[in-house]
Specification:
With about 210 residues, this protein is an alpha+beta fold. The chain is built from eight helices and seven strands, in the order ββββαααβαββαααα. Strand 5, helix 4 and strand 6 form a beta-alpha-beta unit. Helix 1 runs parallel beside helix 3. It binds zinc ion (ZN).
Amino acid sequence: MGMRIGYGWDSHEFKKGVPLKLGGLAIDHPQGLFGHSDGDVLLHAITDALLGALAVGDIGSFFPPGDSRWKDADSTIFVNLAMEEAQTAGYRIVNVDTTLILAAPKIGPISGDLRERVAELLRIAPGAVGIKAKTPEGLNQDHLAVAHAVVLLEGIEEEDSLREMEAAMDDPQTVEAVVGELVGEAHSGHSSRRRVTSRPGFDTEDIT
Ligand SMILES: [Zn+2]
């Protein structure tokens, strides 16, 4: 099944009196991001990156902005749906990298928390989540927050069966058991071939 890459982008406008949500975290700030949902620009970019990697559309096609069900919705719902899509298609996340572009608040002091939260939502290690931030120098966009995200997916089945096979080959006990079985078979004269042949890759030639 191999690997797939996805890219997502989003922007929202700051408004006074709106609670700020970034990466699924509630952040103390006088302004928040205005949107039909909770305006979590980072989670929207990540959701689009996931859906893009699967080539199944975008956040708007799954959650139309006109649909009242998604009014003020918690954006973790969108991420969870994209995660389900990935799982159904047989993929898991290898890593995610993101860039936030916003004048305020400063992301540096909260980047560790953001990373932990995004990792938790995506069910991957924090070391597989990149959180980077820039101020919009020369762009005249201090009233906006922009997020970019890329995600790498890998096929689950292919990888797992390969890993299982490797683990079996590396496990001396498995090899010993199969050798013992073959030796016992030779001595006793009766055949337990059926069991042996049910484990591909473990005939006597392979053991050498
Ligand atoms: Zn959005």
